[in-house]
Amino acid sequence: MNNYELEQYLDELGLPNEGKEAIRKARRGSPVRDVRGTGANVMNIFQSAKMGVSIAAESHTVELPAIISYELDSDVLEYYAQPMKLDVAYPDGRWQHIPDFLLLKKDGIIVEEWRQDKRLHNLAKANPERYVPAYGGGWHAPIMEAHFAELGMQYVLSTPEQVNQQKIRNLSFLRAYYLPSCPRASGEAMMELKEFLEKNPIISLQDLVNLTKDMEKHVGVQAIKPLSFSADDIYWAIAHGSLVVDLDNDDLAERHRTHVFRDLAAMEMFNSLPEIPTVHPSGSTGFTLKSGTRIEYEGVDYILTFVGDKNSVISPFNGLVDNSSENPLEMSNTTLLHLYRTGKIEPLNIESTETNKNTEVISPSQVDAAIKRREKIDKNDQGLNAGVSIRTIQRWKKKPMNRRKC
Q1: Which of 200, 266, 315, 370 could form a disulfide with 325 if both were Cys (CB 3.0 to 4.6 A apart)?
Q2: Any idea what the CATH number is for the domain that residue 132 is in?
Q3: Percent of the chain at pLDDT above 70?
Q4: Looking at the structure, do residues 227 and 249 belong to the same domain, yes or no?
Q5: Which run of H or E residues covers position 66?
Q6: DSSP 311
Q7: Residue closest to 352 by CA, chosen among 285, 268, 305, 399
Q8: Residue 75 neighbours by CB distance under 10 Å
Q9: Stretch 267-288: mean pLDDT
């Protein structure tokens, strides 16, 4: 915000003059102290696109995830670390302190403090008037809350234990992509990623990363246009919110279990499924490199007779599994998977309900149709005119892709 926009913002929130001046001073002077690493903590530097500056964090497990969450939260307009020095009077003395963060949000201003829960228990024993356990969990700091309330702000005391731990692990996993030294993904790479996800709205992170390797190596496959995005581009895009991943629930360290989505609507639809399938980028059925799997390739029936770590052997199939076929073909696993993804290989003997269920393919048109149906179902549930008959609504509700979890 420029100065004019800031004044408008402060007026709209109705801050008293003392509160307005505190905000102006914090924006000009933060941080009011230097952040230093200690024996227990390693200092981290985060390059903020939102703020246009580098921001230091004392801990990669507490402050750094908080900074990244502010960066990605569209409700946070601006945020400042170590924003002000406090000298607050209370009955038995004065409390001199520097809070962790100042957040200028769309609906209000928050001063947020981060403390480990164990440390707060110790502080509460030593200073019971400063730190008070909240009913139902969490903590209050009554003196600070009253001080900032007079300034038109809210004081919040937070602990890492209150935050989704999986998200913290994921943000820590991505921390190298927030460093100022980390090159950003190119415009060409981001455009191609966007175009790819338009055609493949739900794909496992493993498949997406493998695809970049496939295209970079293009082993045994002719006339393939190499993709312009790399694995680092993918992770950079996830870190900076350009690719949609469920960071609250998926574990980026387990790429085969993590999914990348075209948009939030696709993720929401996918999470509403009763069971999470393994999703492939294209094709009509699931395909796994497994001995005994039959495929059709260039109009001929083949069977996988050997599957190795890097290469596999397919042999013509005439109704019998014959490992001694006179015309076996050896292909790299990379090539076989690429041929499947591009529709040149079709699996023939995947019949079990369990296999089909675990390798369900969700196309762009299925995603869009399910989202539109869900919107109509929600309208109907709210008593609004959905534009379709009740029988249609009831039929749609029976389909897993149209159901919500709650």
Answers
A1: 315
A2: 3.40.1350
A3: 77
A4: yes
A5: helix 63-72
A6: E
A7: 285
A8: 10
A9: 55
Of the candidates 168, 166, 176, 169, the residue with the CA atom closest to the CA atom of residue 236: 176
Distance CA(304)–CA(321), nearest Å, equals: 9
Separation between Cα atoms, residue 232 and residue 216, nearest integer Å = 13
Q: Are residue 150 and residue 188 in the same domain, yes or no?
A: no
C-alpha span between 330 and 26 (Å, rounded): 67
CA 265 from centroid of its chain's CA atoms = 14
Task: Give one word for 383, left, alpha or beta, with left for phi > 0 and alpha for psi -120 to 50.
Answer: left
CB 355 within 8 A of CB 225: no
Give CA angle at 180 (179, 183), nearest 5°: 90
Q: How many folded domains does the chain comprise?
A: 4
Cis status, amide bond into 31, omega within 30 of 0: yes
- Residue 282 inside a domain? The answer is no
Closest to 239 (Cα-Cα) out of 254, 260, 257: 260
CA–CA separation, 179 and 57 (whole Å): 12
Same domain, 44 and 133: yes
Copy the structure tokens of residue 116.
Answer: 């480990």
Quote the CA–CA distance of 338 and 195 in Å, as a whole number: 18
Question: What does the chain come to in residues?
Answer: 406
For residues 312 and 78, give the distance between their C-alpha atoms in angstroms, rounded to a whole number. Answer: 54
- Considering the domain architecture, whether residues 14 and 138 belong to the same structural domain is answered as yes
313 in the same domain as 389: no
Q: Count Cβ neighbours within 10 Å for each residue of 190-205 and write b for 16 or more, e otherwise.
A: bebbeebbeebbbbbb
Give the burial class of 392: count Cβ atoms within 10 A of its Cβ; 0-12 exposed, 13-18 middle, 19 or more buried: middle
Does residue 281 belong to any structural domain of this protein?
no
pLDDT higher than threshold 60 for residue 65: yes
Contact yes or no for 122/74 (Cβ under 8 A)? no
CA 256 → CA 208, 210, 279, distances in Å? 10, 10, 10
DSSP state for residue 59 in the 8-state scheme: -
Q: Taking the CA atoms of the chain, what radius of gyration do you get in angstroms?
A: 27
Do 147 and 14 lie in one domain? The reply is yes
Structure tokens at 197: 């996800």
Cα–Cα distance for residue pair 381/377, rounded to 1 Å? 6
Dump pLDDT digits (tens) for 98-145.
999 999 999 999 999 998 888 889 988 988 888 898 887 889 989 899
Task: Give me the pLDDT at residue 306, please.
Answer: 79
Verify that 351 and 368 share a domain, yes or no. Answer: no
pLDDT band at 24 (very low <50, low <70, confident <90, very high): very high
